[in-house]
DNA sequence: CTGTTAGCGCCTTCAA
DNA sequence: TTGAAGGCGCTAACAG
């Protein structure tokens, strides 16, 4: 690979001159610039990005850390992140946190290969997050709540969302409502569950532990837990799946058992992923402002990079999306 | 930020010693190593990735270049890429080519920030691709065909896929078959169209230019072109959308006009994206071996990096997936 | 406008 | 086992 040295030599100028010329500085004459450019072209010279980043101690890129690049992550969120990042002339790279401490994500977080990062990856530990955040390296987390001088939190109002979902079910006459949870360590899940509890409570319905089923936020998990529910003697009036993926898995399990949604049972999800609208029946769910969350996250980073002071915590609101998986419950005929 | 110098100073050793200790070399005593590690920890030292990459002139990361990070890209493909990459202990980063020549993708391609790259982004020009590829920097393209010493091609058999789709329609009694194309400059599209033509030809059906509609591979494009088709006087027996996204957009247009699929018209897509199975009716389509394409791509890169010689061209086969959007055409009652 | 020079932070011979 | 020193490729004073 040709270096700037080779270019300078070929063009017959000093290295610095070549550098200036290549960076479009106005310190060199048009003639030299052309000479240098010609030399660069003929050598197929490409600058070494590291060397220049090293020198300037700044990369102009921010990282988006996802738990799995191929996962059903939120394309709107990425869109938001992407839009704001490119609008600011920064580069955006996405990397996965598969592999935990040895993952690419951890590497990027720790080795200052980027100027800032957004984390949406439950498999990055709080510990890694906390010890990576430092002055001059803003970190925004979208999936947890962390108190640190250098970590900024953006959350959607999961509690309220959980409340909304549960209340919608209650208002449709359902009282025996199962909650299919996400993993135990999921902050989001815990808040959604809190909302579920609150709604039950506000409507004078006693919480029954038997209706809390532990899932894992995956489609298979939803399928499995639903099968389990079906295998049990008692069946709820409705199921609140703590995310859409699980609800879709559940839908499949229900269909296989000829249990009709929403005639026999009502179900509701959380997230409003793209698929939700296409499954049959279309899934009622809780919509999160994903685009906003993504763009806000980057926005915070840029403010921080510019040395401004910003809040450490933001909460975005959620919204009920009524589709066709929830229906008014037919009460058993009163005996006359 | 603490540098290795600070660590060395605090630990009371030379810089090189600190470096050895931190890199687990066996050239330092256990005692020194511990001393250095303690110092590093207390300073919250993190090595600067650039500096070390610069020194070793190798990054251990490969880039996956997508036209849009938030786009409906192929999660299975990414899965394949990801699996093989991490299995080889390399890092994977995804970046977008939005912005063309000024995009992050172009930057990564040109500034040797990665050891190899996989391109699946029609908005990266052949020119950029060609001039980025160089010895020691293997490039695999998944969406075009390029002849260069340093570019490797992996294609799915689009022509055969197009043939399969069209033939399936023909075998169901359809003869007036519209083709909704992708963008003009899409290599994939051209091959699919070729397959369409071949099938028509093999079955003695004359190609009619009026049945070729120019789309753009987006859902909106499919919607728009279908509306157009509907607005015209003549309507085809069936439509072959050159990708699923467009077919889904088309489905919507058809539904809005109370044209039933597959009763009034049969349609087929291409790609077998996740949604295809969930739309109503479930979309018949052509499935591509996406996971294989992704894993093969990285595999090729690693072979190249290891100095092995590999073929410049691979073709993976496609397969017809029958679902419910294609139906045998009722012939008009013969007059008796 | 151009050239000289001193590092950015790290790794790695080489000599002690 | 440890330390001194050179340099990866580039940028940015500074001096001419």
Automatic annotation (TrEMBL), chains A, B:
PANTHER family: HTH-TYPE TRANSCRIPTIONAL REGULATOR GALS, LACI-RELATED TRANSCRIPTIONAL REPRESSOR. Gene3D superfamilies: 3.40.50.2300, lambda repressor-like DNA-binding domains (1.10.260.40). One of its GO terms (molecular function) is DNA-binding transcription factor activity. Pfam families: LacI (PF00356), Peripla_BP_3 (PF13377). It comes from Virgibacillus pantothenticus. Keywords: DNA-binding, Transcription, Transcription regulation. PROSITE patterns: HTH_LACI_2. The keyword Transcription regulation applies. This is LacI family transcriptional regulator.
């Amino acid at each position: 690979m040709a270096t700037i040295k080779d270019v300078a030599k070929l063009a017959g100028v000093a290295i610095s001159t070549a550098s200036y010329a290549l960076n479009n500085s106005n310190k060199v004459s048009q003639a030299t610039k052309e000479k240098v450019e010609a030399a660069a072209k003929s050598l197929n010279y490409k600058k070494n990005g590291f060397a220049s980043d090293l020198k300037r101690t700044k990369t102009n890129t921010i990282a988006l850390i996802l738990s799995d690049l191929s996962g059903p992550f939120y394309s709107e969120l990425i869109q938001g992140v992407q839009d704001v990042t490119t609008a600011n002339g920064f580069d955006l790279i996405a990397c996965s946190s598969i592999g935990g401490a040895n993952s690419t994500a951890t590497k990027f977080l720790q080795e200052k290969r980027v100027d800032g990062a957004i984390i949406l990856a439950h498999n990055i530990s709080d510990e890694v997050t906390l010890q990576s955040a430092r002055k001059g390296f803003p970190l925004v987390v979208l999936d947890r709540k962390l108190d640190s001088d250098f970590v900024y939190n953006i959350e959607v109002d999961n509690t309220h969302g959980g409340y909304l979902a549960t209340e919608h079910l209650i208002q449709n006459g359902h009282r025996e409502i199962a909650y299919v949870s996400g993993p135990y360590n999921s902050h989001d899940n815990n808040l959604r569950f809190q909302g579920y509890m609150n709604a039950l409570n506000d409507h004078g319905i006693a919480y029954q532990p038997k209706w809390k089923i532990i899932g894992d936020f995956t489609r298979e998990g939803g399928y499995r837990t639903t099968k389990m529910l079906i295998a049990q003697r008692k069946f709820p009036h409705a199921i609140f799946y703590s995310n859409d993926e699980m609800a879709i898995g559940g839908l499949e399990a229900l269909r296989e058992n000829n249990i009709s949604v929403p005639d026999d049972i009502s179900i509701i999800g959380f997230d409003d992923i793209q698929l939700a609208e296409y499954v049959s029946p279309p899934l009622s769910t809780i919509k999160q402002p994903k685009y906003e969350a993504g763009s806000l996250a980057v926005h915070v980073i840029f403010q921080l990079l510019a040395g401004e002071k910003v809040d450490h915590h933001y909460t975005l609101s959620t919204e009920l999306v009524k589709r066709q998986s929830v229906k008014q419950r037919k009460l058993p005929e009163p005996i006359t």
